[in-house]
Specification:
Number of helices of chain B: 10
Order of helices and strands of chain A: HHHHHHEEEHHHHEHHHH
Radius of gyration of chain B: 19 Å
Bound molecules: adenosine-5'-triphosphate, magnesium ion
Strand order of the largest sheet of chain B: 6-7-8-3-9-10
Shape of chain A: globular
Largest interface: A-B, 31 and 39 residues
CATH class of chain A: Mainly Alpha
Distance between the termini of chain A: 14 Å
CATH architecture of the largest domain in chain B: 3-Layer(aba) Sandwich
Structural class of chain B: alpha/beta
Number of strands of chain B: 10
Strand content of chain B: 15-25%
Structural class of chain A: mainly alpha
Helix content of chain B: 25-40%
Helix content of chain A: over 70%
CATH topology of chain A: ABC transporter involved in vitamin B12 uptake, BtuC
Shape of chain B: globular
Oligomer: heterodimer
Number of domains of chain A: 1
CATH topology of the largest domain in chain B: Rossmann fold
Number of strands of chain A: 4
Strand content of chain A: under 5%
Number of helices of chain A: 14
CATH architecture of chain A: Orthogonal Bundle
Order of helices and strands of chain B: EEEHEEHEHHHHEHEHEEHH
CATH superfamily of the largest domain in chain B: P-loop containing nucleotide triphosphate hydrolases
């Protein structure tokens, strides 16, 4: 009786349509939020905030953005990092060029700029699908990074396009410590994740999934393909854009265009493949997994090497990392396309039946 | 027939449709009257599905005119069909595989929802109310088709017969005035076929929905339809009430020729 919906009857549709219809899930999420907002700041070290928690949240947000586009609307993209770059540079420029603009407004404007660029690069999706669309978004990846290096105005004439972000001032208070930055990032990510959850359970999300699953049937039902796909590009890029702004302002403090490489786009794609394509929670699981695995291997591999008396260089460690990643991605693509989120769901279904197997 | 059949609401005149060199439809004229069950039959490849696709704007005929409620219809995009209250099901089930039964049926009402994505993201006011109001309608359809038990099941996991039923539910959720059904009973066993027949008749009876139906099972067609049009190699070879069509020389020949 740990995790059971038995006895929790829904007497009206409103109750049935809650975000988390099962009581244990609701309690779980509240506990999780309490831990994230109250518990973590009390116990985590500065290293944990700046090296693990903040990047985790930011990448989870970017993965969420990509998941909206790829997982829900079915449009493959390899340009996530480039849309993050747009968000970062746009937010920087809004701060720089508009006197007294609040930092949050800059972030939002960064996201909106990324959304605009996303719509532009989403236009090919009206004609092409799948692999070919991925190639078109690849063009976005290279073109945007090239633009940011090519036009010095975008980086306020700094050499090779490096920008150093402005101070983070919220309500007259400057955020300097890792824990403050963490709380800012956390708040933004929580709000945006809730919004994403609402979107995908509403008719916007249904239209995306309909287009993803069967576009002819979708249009016969009355869904207009063009606005539906472009909206997915816009919102997805908005999420990536805000993630990019946070990446620059709250994580690194100074970024260059080449930092938003194709490599990073692929990492975000791997996050959703491993975490779960078409799952909000999967975006978080995937980001955690991809960010934590290298850290774990860094510690674990030398430990085991020593245990068995093997010679181990740091080069070997990074080779093994690549191997493990490759193997995992193949595993998830072939065996469990819905990723960790699906495994979690299966575990819950088992738990629901526990202790009786049937 | 006890029910009342109304005026012609859809009139197709001299429709010809080609795909490159393939003539899918040649100079076909027929009409559909309000509240009737109109069957389209014919051997494989006769052009039946193409005919439905012409009606709801997926295919655009090279020649011919289409009148909808007496007015000539311009070239139409598929998404316009639903705004004219035409819904359909497909020969090869076209459900949204990754979504639950409930969500699939909810998409049937998508054009009736007015709230925008910002309201959805914030989930307040109109977005929330609409979701509830349309859920009520959808539950009516679910009750009508007796699929309460699979509401939350992803459609991909359902057996074929139930998928067909869910597809009908999705079409009905739109409260269409005209329903196009492309072989709704194909691949079903006798019992499932009987259920489906009953549903089709009930829809027609209770809501007055006009139905255009493609079906291979002659018994079913002769039983439930008011009028039948027969196609063969893209040409119309027969048109009339079931008894008339049954005794039509060309029709008998076409069917014997095709090995039926
Ligand atoms: N999109 C298309 N492109 C090319 N040819 C097509 C297309 N759709 C249909 N056809 C051709 O048009 C002809 C009629 O096809 P249609 O699907 O309308 O037949 P049908 O009567 O529905 O047959 P069945 O009983 O097998 O469903 C066939 O020769 C088919 O190959
Ligand atoms: Mg057909």
């Amino acid at each position: 009786m740990l995790y059971r919906e038995a006895g929790q009857f829904k007497t009206n549709y409103a109750a049935d349509q809650q975000v988390f219809p099962i009581r244990q899930d609701r309690i779980g999420i509240i506990v999780l939020l309490a831990v994230a907002f109250l518990g973590v700041p009390m116990f985590a070290s500065a290293y944990w905030f700046s090296a693990i928690l903040i990047p985790f949240l930011i990448f989870a947000l970017a993965a969420l953005g990509l998941n909206i586009l790829t997982g829900y609307a079915g449009q493959l993209s390899l340009g996530s990092a480039a849309f993050m770059a747009v968000g970062a540079y746009a937010a920087y420029n809004f701060q720089l060029r508009i006197e007294g603009i609040p930092i949050i407004v800059s972030f939002i404007c960064g996201g909106l700029t990324a959304a605009g660029v996303g719509i532009l690069f989403g236009l090919p999706s009206l004609r092409i699908k799948g692999f070919y669309l991925a190639v078109a978004t690849l063009a976005a990846q290279f073109f945007i990074v090239w633009c940011l290096t090519k036009f010095p105005w975008l980086s306020n004439n700094s050499s090779s396009g490096v920008i150093s972000t402005q101070q983070l001032i919220i309500f007259g208070h400057e955020l300097t410590t890792p824990v403050e930055k963490y709380l800012l990032v956390l708040s933004i990510v929580v709000v945006m994740a809730m919004a994403a959850k609402n979107l995908v359970r509403s008719s916007t999300g249904r239209a995306w999934m309909a287009v993803r699953d069967m576009d002819v049937a979708a249009s016969v039902i009355g869904i207009k393909l063009m606005p539906t796909k472009l909206l997915a590009f816009a919102i997805s890029s908005f999420y990536c854009g805000v993630a990019g702004a946070l990446y620059a302002f709250c994580y690194l403090g100074s970024v260059e265009p080449d930092g938003f490489s194709l490599d990073m786009s692929f990492r975000i794609l791997f996050m959703i493949i491993i975490g779960g394509v078409g799952s909000i929670m999967g975006s978080f699981l995937g980001a955690a997994f991809i960010l934590l695995l290298p850290i774990f291997l860094d510690v674990a591999l030398p430990f085991f090497a020593e245990l068995f008396g093997l010679p181990f260089s740091s080069a070997t460690v990074s080779h093994i990392q690549i191997l493990v990643f490759g193997a995992l991605i193949m595993f998830f693509l072939i065996v469990e396309p819905h990723g960790l989120a699906r495994l979690w769901q299966i575990a819950k279904e088992k738990l629901r039946l526990w202790p009786f197997p049937h | 027939m006890s029910k009342k059949i109304g005026d012609v609401i859809l009139d197709l005149q001299n429709i010809s449709l080609r795909f490159g060199g393939v003539k899918a439809l040649t100079d076909i004229s027929f009409n559909v009257k309000e509240h009737e069950i109109r069957a389209i039959i014919g051997p494989n490849g006769a052009g039946k599905s193409s005919m439905l696709n012409v009606i709801n704007g997926v295919y655009h005929p090279q020649e011919g005119k289409i009148f909808w409620h007496g007015k000539e219809r311009k070239k139409m995009e598929p998404h316009m069909a639903s705004r004219q209250n035409i819904a359909r099901t497909f020969q090869n089930i076209a459900l949204f595989k990754g979504m639950t039964v409930l969500d699939n049926i909810m998409t049937g009402r998508i054009t009736k929802m007015k709230s925008n994505f910002i309201e959805h993201a914030l989930w307040f006011g109109r977005a929330r109310n609409e979701e509830l109001e349309h859920r009520k309608k959808v539950e009516e359809v679910i009750d009508f088709l007796e699929i309460q038990h699979i509401r939350k099941t992803p459609v991909g996991r359902l057996p074929y017969g139930l998928q067909k039923r869910v597809e009908l539910a999705r079409a009905l959720a739109a409260e269409p005035s005209m329903l196009l059904l492309d072989e709704p009973m194909a691949g079903m066993n006798v019992e499932e076929k009987q259920d489906m027949c009953r549903f089709i008749l009930d829809v027609n009876d209770q809501y007055g929905t006009t139905i255009v139906l493609i079906e291979h099972d002659m018994g079913v067609v002769m039983d439930i339809s008011d009028r039948v049009v027969v196609l063969d190699y893209g040409k119309k070879i027969g048109d009339g009430v079931p008894d008339e069509v049954k005794n039509n020389e060309d029709v008998i020949k076409a069917y014997l020729g095709a090995g039926h």
